[in-house]
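Journal club prep — side note

Before the paper discussion, L.F. wants everyone to see what a predicted structure for a comparable chain looks like in token form. Sequence:
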Amino acid sequence: MDVVAGGVVVDVDFAARHELHTGIQRVVRETVPRWHRQHDITLVAWTGPGGAMRRLTAVEEDRILRWQEREGSECDESECDDAESSTRIVVPWRSDVLLPEYPYPEHCPMLAALSLYSGSTLGLVGYDAIPLISPDLIHAGLPDRFMRYLQAVKHASRVAGISAAATEEFRGFGEMLAAQGLTGPVVTECALPVEVPAGAPVAQADPPLVVSVGSFEPRKNQLAVLHAAEHLWRDGLDFRLEFIGGGGYATEFDPLMARLRAAGRPVRRRNAITDDELWATIRSARFSAFLSLHEGFGLPVAESLACGTPCLTSDYGSTREIADGGGALVVDPLDDEAVATQMRRLLTDDALVAGLREQAANRPPRTWDDYARDLWDTLLPGGRR
């Protein structure tokens, strides 16, 4: 057992255990290696549900610190169990415990106890409060998981919201804690970066391509894009539509898309592509469409604009924050007619698209180096180096 006294312990359990590399895992794998190079930190996972913190295995460490270089694959269950049994337990004592990802619900009581009884502080990244505010838009089991996560949040010292919208959501929760006799965490905005790999110019697809990136779940609202596209195809517009994303569960989107494909409509869904394929697809698109009903940040909007590709997105919340920086059109995501109208403009008005591309190119950059530095300073103000 290792007692980490007066140090910084970073809980990366999920990203260390899994090959999944979507929004939150990308934040972890871009931020934590930069912290590791610049600061003395201890990376931990957990021994299991209701278990204890432990040091990472070599495979897990590679998933966090060397994601871009590694060629390994996820170990099978027995290998992971054997590896866990050979690692050392970690006990933070009067330390700073940082959570750049959501902890498992089973770990939240222990994290709260660390804050209450070990003299340690908790610092969290606040991604969103969707399960609390919009439970009807997500899987039925997630609100309960999120309520258990809030057990750790209410005993945290600091929360870094990834956007102004997410910051206000967590700040609102913190203000309610006075009824429990708790002060709640200090909540500060630390906006996510917008950085994509440099790429050679990509020829625009012919016929024009519209791309929609995001996991398949009701709140992402891909169905609105599909309905608008069918309306425009019936009017004779010539374009292709591509959805890119993983996960999700069965909705009416799937049978509708199957019917459109059977009717010969140029639409497809891709569930697993490489990063290089993703950036090339976005750069070749005439525009992207991301009409989510609730987002903590809206990374597909920011990344589309960083690639120089205009985006059609929702006209409120964090996606509106991003759009206000230029390069995007906004629309009420619940107004199917308005969505179709804006998509028609983007497909037919070359001057509009050219102007949006110029705006996207002139957006001020914010890099992962910027974010890693700012996040460290937000969660550890005047703290350990």
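L.F.'s comment for the group: The two ends are 24 Å apart (CA to CA). Keep this in mind when we get to the figures.
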